[in-house]
Write a structure and sequence with these properties.
The structure is a single chain. The chain has 217 residues and is of the alpha/beta class. It folds into three domains: 3-70, Histidine-containing Protein, Chain: A; 75-144, Histidine-containing Protein, Chain: A; 154-215, Histidine-containing Protein, Chain: A (2-Layer Sandwich). The protein has six helices and eleven strands. It has helices spanning 3-16, 44-55, 79-92, 119-129, 154-163, 190-201; strands at 26-31, 34-41, 62-69, 101-106, 109-116, 137-140, 143-144, 172-177, 180-187, 208-211, 214-215. The strands form three sheets. Strands 4, 5, 6 and 7 form a four-stranded mixed β-sheet that branches. Strands 8, 9, 10 and 11 form a four-stranded mixed β-sheet that branches. α2 (44-55) links the parallel β2 (34-41) and β3. The chain starts with a helix and ends with a strand.
Length: 217
């Protein structure tokens, strides 16, 4: 597939995705499968939706996000309002351990810090705040440190990959060193790579996932 074909498909996918309301304002450039999105969107949530839409397209090997969030006046909130809303959202999410995640907001940019036991808890914290009005971006620097040291077993991760209908497990190798998991091999799409990484994070005791999987085009 040529870069021109990929670019047209990404543009079509952006227009198809209903949560990307600013598709006409997004520029798409493709070089050897590496896709760059530029332009303006109306919210951080829309920026994420645009990136995810590009990642779904066949032939895309990586996405460079150069989109800028330009909030409409009705979406603008003070840092204090955003921080209060984020703290409430975290408290209401049952997947986020109480008192373990801290919030800081500077010029609409929200930073999450602290420590949790599992990657799904870290994901839940970010999911809780990314759709709040006024948020221009989120930096997730939450640490994953289980209170009980658990051995990471490569066989368990390999079995999880085999169970996944979205992953060709035979093309992925798993190496474990302490609490670090390294994934290598090749997959058919960016979405498949993301699913393989998600499966690795689901194993107890994983603190770091080193994703070295390439995307075959």
């Amino acid at each position: 597939m040529s870069d021109a074909d990929i670019r047209r498909n990404v543009e079509t996918e952006l227009n198809w995705e209903p949560s990307v309301t600013s598709a006409s304002a997004i520029g798409v450039g493709v070089d050897a499968g590496v896709t760059t999105l530029s332009g303006n969107v109306k919210s951080y949530a829309e920026q994420l939706a645009a990136v995810r839409a590009a990642e779904r397209v066949s032939g895309v090997t990586a996405v460079v996000n150069k989109l800028e969030v330009h909030l409409p006046s009705s979406f603008i909130r003070t840092d204090e309002e955003i921080a209060a809303a984020a703290a409430n959202a975290l408290r209401w999410n049952l997947s986020v351990p109480v008192g373990r995640v801290k919030v800081e907001v500077v010029d609409g940019w929200l930073t999450l810090s602290g420590g949790v036991d599992w990657q799904y808890q870290r994901d839940a914290a970010e999911d809780s705040v990314r759709y709040l009005a006024g948020v221009k971006g989120v930096s997730d620097v939450i640490d994953i440190k289980s209170p009980v040291s658990q051995a990471v077993v490569s066989g368990d991760i390999e079995a999880a990959l085999k169970r996944s209908a979205a992953v060709d497990a035979g093309r992925i190798s798993v190496r474990v060193d302490g609490h670090t998991v390294t994934l290598s091999g090749s997959v058919r799409s960016y979405a498949e790579r993301r699913e393989a990484e998600r499966a690795a994070w689901a194993s107890p005791g994983v603190y770091t996932v080193n994703d070295q999987i390439s995307i075959a085009v």
